[in-house]
Amino acid sequence: MDSINRDQHEHNRQDLSAGDAVARIQDISGDADSCFFCTTPLADSPTGGTRPMSIKKADDTGALWFLSAADSHKNAEIAADPAVRLYMQSSRHSGFLVLHGTATISRDRDRIDDLWNPIVKTWFTEGKDDPRITVIKVTPTDGYYWDNKHGDFVAATKMMIGAAVGKTLDDSIEGAIAP
Fold first, then answer.
1. What is the mean pLDDT of residues 9-35?
2. Bridge-partner residues for 147, per DSSP?
3. What's the first-to-final CA gap in the chain, in angstroms?
4. What are the CA-CA distances from residue 105 to residues 67, 82, 102, 159 (Å)?
5. N or C: which end of the chain has fewer CB within 10 A?
């Protein structure tokens, strides 16, 4: 048992697979709305392979979708090595998720239409028809999540009571994710 959980009297570990894993990915990514998108950096990468990205969609398979510029360092790094990591946090104290996966790049016009939002024109000034726009699909292979079971209010209340009485009353839940 992990040392941080040695005094935990409640069930706080639950690995998720298939539909449960996909639901957790959709919930956390939907609330987070963005993530740190990490690639294997190339020698000239100014970001070291890590940058914030807006999550456009998490589909029914758990795949995450992004829009990106064809001439970006990120796209070049994915072309060299499609293995990526995504880190997200959906609220101040809960909803943490790290995913490992494989990224693919396309210029699928239907998918661009599906993911398009007028604010994206900030980066693609020619709109949906901007020749630089690409779609990145990240297919998760595995990951790990940390969350609470009953929401932030219940978790905070249990922590305060636990601190007052000197007992571990943690509402956390964590586990591996395998979509």
1. 92
2. 173
3. 25
4. 9, 9, 10, 44
5. N
The CA–CA distances, whole Å, from 20 to 9, 32, 36, 122 equal: 24, 18, 23, 35
CA-CA distances (angstroms) from residue 174 to 15, 89, 128, 164? Answer: 7, 14, 39, 24
Pairing status of strand 133-148 against strand 83-89: unpaired
Written as one string, the DSSP assignment of 37-82 is EE----TT-TTTTEEEEE--EE-TTS-EEEEEETTSHHHHHHHH--
3 lies in some domain: no
Lowest mean pLDDT segment, chosen from 69-73, 76-80, 160-164: 160-164
Q: How many structural domains are present in the chain?
A: 1
Quick: pLDDT tens for 155-175. 555 555 566 666 665 667 899
Residue 14 is classified by DSSP as -
Domain contains 4:
no
- Token reading at 87: 């880190």
Q: CB under 8 Å to 142, separation ≥6 — which residues?
A: 99, 100, 176, 177, 178
Provide, rounded to the nearest whole percent, the portion of the chain with pLDDT above 90: 72
Find the CATH number of the domain harbouring 144.
2.30.110.10
Sign of CA dihedral 18, 21, 27, 32: negative
Residues of the domain holding 107: 12-178
Q: Is 2 within a domain? A: no
Residue 1 is assigned to a structural domain of this protein = no
